[in-house]
Predict the structure.
Amino acid sequence: MRYSRNLSMAVSITLVLSSFVQASEITIEQPKPLPVVGPLFRPFHWERRIVPPATFSNTPRLESLVRGGSLYLSVQDVIALVLENNIDIAIQRYGPVLAREVLRRTSGGGLLRSVGTPIYPGPVSVSTLGVSVSAVGLAESGSGVSSGGGIVVGYGTPPPNLDPYLFAFGNFQHSTAAQSNVVLVGVPSLLNDSRTFQFGYGQTFATGTSAQLTYGSYQSSLNSPVFVLNPYTQGFLDLFITQNLLQGFGIAVNNRNIRVAKNNMQVTDLQVKRQVITTISAALNLYWDLVSFNEDLRIKGQALETAQKLYEDNKKQVAIGTLSAIEITRAAAEVSSSKENLLIAQTNVAQQETVLKNALSRNGVASPWLDDVHIVTLDRIQVPEKEDLKPNAELVEQALAKRPELEQTRINIQSTLINLAGSKNALLPTLQAFADFTNNALTGSANALANGANIPDPFVVGGYGNLLGQIFRRNYPNYAVGFSLNIAFRNRAAQADYVADQLALRQAELQMQRSISQVRVDVKNAVIGLQQARVRYETAVATRVLAQQTLDAERKKFQFGTSSIPLVVQAQRDLNNDQSAEVQSMANYTHARIAYDEAVGQTLEQYGISMEEAKTGQVARASSIPDSVRNEKK
């Protein structure tokens, strides 16, 4: 879209407020680590992250453009304000941040979560002055995004928990047990003071391997003389390893949610891009419609002045007897009709300003100062002398490469293929191999109650160091290996999921082809619409010129008495209508041009929009207001 400064203002534009940079809207705060958490335990430390509240205030840019009760807006100002303050974009901006948290979740073995938000269509003008342009963009179902945020599937082999864990157990016990055989125990009631401890570390890996290392000790003190060691301590160090060999085997199956989450991050980025394109296009349509409404208001004002002048002239001529009295009535009727048309034009401008303000602000017209200001548009529509359009084939290729909807669909098909591996793996039986390695130990003191009757082996007499020495020397090792097989007969749920996922993939592939075909149609229709809008504009200009010539001719004929006032009034009315039609054709052209940019995927490039600025809500581009009003009081 080409545009030019409003020459009637005869002002130069000065850049002001060179920067409106604000803090990033969505920043998750991470407090400093607790000092008691050392590097060894930091992976297990719960990170207390804080999400800041939503922002409902506008950036300083909006108020800075207000001078003397008027809001001065150029096209670039509208774009900057939309990127900073528009609610639809602000909502969509949370998508990538949520997607990063889902990736964090899946990296620990969690299931995927839906984080997407559907695309909001954006505001529309209050009048049908502009042409009705078919919406460009593929439906959510056509892009393979059911919720706007990528693939979310919970079927197939469940992913393992990939976060390591620690566990600890302690038990302190005093027990008294009456004995039925005093000869075996040596006392009628056995007293036992015991302490049990267990500590362990475990982790599961994306290969389907699970390992757990456990250390445990049991210390007991008895009142019986029968036991050789009293008190004594038993201990063990156990390593237990399992490996999935069929279901749940392999990195491709177990990390599929991580890969899908990474894909969904790309999808949410594209979702933000789509929202930016949609909202910017809608806001530009609002702006150019307001420009057209203001121009139409000017035309309607001139028509009322002309009708009022005719009414005053007719009254004078009737008074001197050179004109019939009925001509006063006719002129009054024309004044009344012109006033009605002017009122409609004024209503269109007022309502359009309200809609545009709401699109540029987070709290809309709830702010009294914003509700009261009048918008002054600094740009006017300029239709180029000719259209410099590439061949349709090149435009289609460009659209297929740049349209974010298609890229979303491609990524989601990749995610469907990734998840299909999990559904297929669930068809297999569960076969696990395991290995268990245990080092045991026993230590204690000679039983003082035995009075030397039972002499323990010196190897087991000692303290806790003797226990640990036995464990690490592996004096009492245990070994075990084995397997576990579980075959589910029929396995109908897994079979149904696998076939359903294949059918969904085929649907997605067909929808992709449908979307490609629709893009070709969009591009061709956009080109035709742009060419048609241009022809309609040229025709409207030619018609307006002829209407002006006709009016001039009727006025000359009336001066020479060869025409009548009704013919002059009709010629004036025709000129006013043709002027409004020219304005409408200019608005039609802007809509067609915006739709063309959307169709071929060049909206962002056409207006110099940075997605980095769109994602952060920070626009470094300076705003502009005329020199003649720059120093006025706000």
Remarks:
- The first helix runs from residue 60 to 64.
- The mean pLDDT is 86.
- The domain at 3-156+258-415+499-630 is CATH 1.20.1600.10 (Outer membrane efflux proteins (OEP)).
